[in-house]
Design brief:
This protein has about 850 residues and is α/β, with parallel strands linked by helices. The chain has a 5-stranded parallel sheet, with helices on both faces. β12 and β13 form a beta hairpin. The protein is globular. The two termini are about 70 Å apart. The N terminus and C terminus are likely disordered.
Length: about 850
Amino acid sequence: MDPINRGSGEHGHEDDGQVTRPRPPRDPLATDLGQHKPALVRTVRLVTGEFALTVNPVDGSELENCPPHERPRPPAKRGAAERADLARAAQPPVPPGPSQPRLPLLERHEERERIVRLLARGRSVRLTGPSGSGRTVLLDAVGEDCADLAPDGVVRLSGYGRTASDVLHDLFAVVYEAPLHRPDHDELLRLVREIGAVVVLDDAEIGGSALDVLLDATPECAFVIAATPDIPAPSARAQLDEVLLGGLDRSGGLELLERAVGRVLTEDESNWAGDLWFESEGLPLRFIQAGALLRQRDRMQASEEAFDDYGVFQEAPADATFEAGDGADVPLPSLAEGAAPAALLASRLSESARATLRFAVALGGEVPHQAHLPALVGDTHADAALAELAASALVSPVGTRYRLAAGVQAQLEVSGYADALQESALAAARHYTWWAGHPSVTPERVCAEADALLAALDVLVPVTTVPQDEEEDSASVQLARTAAPAFAAGLHWSAWERVLRLGVEASELADDLGEQAYFHHELGVLALCGLQLDRARAELEASVAMRGELADKRGITAGRRALALVADRSGTPQLTSGGTPSGEEVPDARHDESMSPPGGVPAAASPRTDPSDDTIAVLAHPGGAGFPAAKPRSVAGRLVSGTRRNLVAAGAGALLVAVLGTVVTLGATSDHKNDTPSEKVGVNPSATQDAQDDSLGADTPKKGDDSSSGVVATPTDPGPDGTYGTSDDPTPTATATRQPSAGPSGTRTGTGKPSKSASASPSHRPSPRPSSPSPKPTKSSPSPSSTSPSPTSPSPSPSTSTSPDTSDSASGPVATGAPHKAAAASDGGLI
């Protein structure tokens, strides 16, 4: 179907009658003049523990609780065929060109048989030998002998630069099939306990307690751990059988040299090899390198016809043989050159091979993959340089890649291969930045080159400076920025953490605040994945603060979401000055219950008799659950420090107090009759206070009253002198005289609801006092006015009362004589 003029049914669209205008033909010579498509952003979503991690290279990774429908199925173990495919993929790449002859394993039969016997009994072995002693070759032979020994087969792992946790994750990835799934620590320990395999760990760098952790986590596995003598020894409880690997004897060294040269040695060469054996302590690597020296000498002694056939000797095939003595007589290398042959071997290689060695020296011994050599060296045939280096024994396999052989790094540095160290590292960093950010490059391929990328950063980060041009970016920052999301998506999290820390250092030196915020955000997400909550909170808060200075709204949102998840996991949200965990108000946040501020809810201010009294009543006390102890502050400070809803609650309480005071005032000064109260009150009231009693004289029962009999007389209208009379109706009036007890905070406890008797009495008449004299008023709460009449006293005098007090029958159990405490009690009902 025509991709320009779509049909009616293409892509699910029906014909709408519109005619599609055909596109003009594009000039093939002007393809680069058009507008390019934006680069694809590689986002990967994976599951780690209980979280779902979305690796976002733009704004930063996002972490959330994994939804139930996205949780992966329990990992299943791989079959034997799948494990074999993974084992072949884990081997270093085969150099281009003719295959090199495989040298035999000489004088290692005793160690080989002993290791196999121990593994068959379920014991673990630690193979200790110096670099260049042939540990890798021996491990290959042991792996072949133990192929059918364990149910999960033989698992080959590299321990170079790996921790115990990294080894456990690598073991899980080989045995289990779990794409885009990284188990947490507990799940990882549970899964690796079910693995029964012979684990061959080469170039191990863990020992002591770290090795104990590895062995305890895998009780059903038998390990063969190859390490150098400088690695810490295992602890006594590790129960590892030690196998020492030394050098070859004299006869073994001569035999290995003859096999490396491919012919019988002459007498002079045999004597030279004997001296070399004494100098090198019989290390097999030195004899293989010596064999490469003799092969180069043979080529140099070849006839001129050989040079005409093959060109310069550097380009001659590795399997080409020459007859000695046909050409010029080339002397044997000196004993020093035989013991340290790297410089002499490199001088006889091609220019591409020497350039590759310069990059390897700049990268700390890491040899770039052969696919990167043409771009780095600038030669389309530079991938053949790896074959030259491997044939000369200048590189050795380490895991899935090659590194400079033992001692080669120091020998080449002395020979001047480190003179352009920073220039080579800068060229490698720029190349890897372009390559790692290309959409066609998978995260797994980037993880395979992790050591080379990190080595380039190790060289460039300490010398990072602020770019002179504003449009120019720092090479180290850009490499870390590009490689970090690839390491995260490829589940190489130890490299992810290391590149993030290098990125933080580089961005600080380059004065790049935006990239520094990104690296801090990623470190916080990584710490949260490992449930390191304090570290995650610190990193994320730093990132949010930096992005706030840059007004990066999308980055701030990503950081706040991660901080909310940290608060949810820790259970103690970080309250800042804004009152929210993120430092600002969240519009869509919902509050299930209100919360008092740290300083408490301030009560309504009321007039006081003592001007020096600055205390106020609070409901929420500092030091309670979830709040720190508040420092003493002024009234204005407490009013400002509260949140908006608490201020509203305080205002509502003050309004409620005012309404209740008005109602009580009307009830105390009015009667059920329609007579005007102002016409019934005399100008000279007769209410006086006796010197022997603190009550008013009108409250004292007179002789002949029926109060002693328990019948309370109903008061009548006040007379001309302002006193109440009593009617002859002996019917008692129901009143609530129960007083609440004082609470621990100085306020009275109660429900804050009006009593039933008060609401049932429509007359709002003041209750007469009982027959017994009333106790003296308490002085625990200061009165807001100069004098406050008793609730049961006659009509108050206008000159001595500013506002009537409330009784329990009118407003419930509220503190008597303290309107500001009544406001506090009202706030308690709201909050």
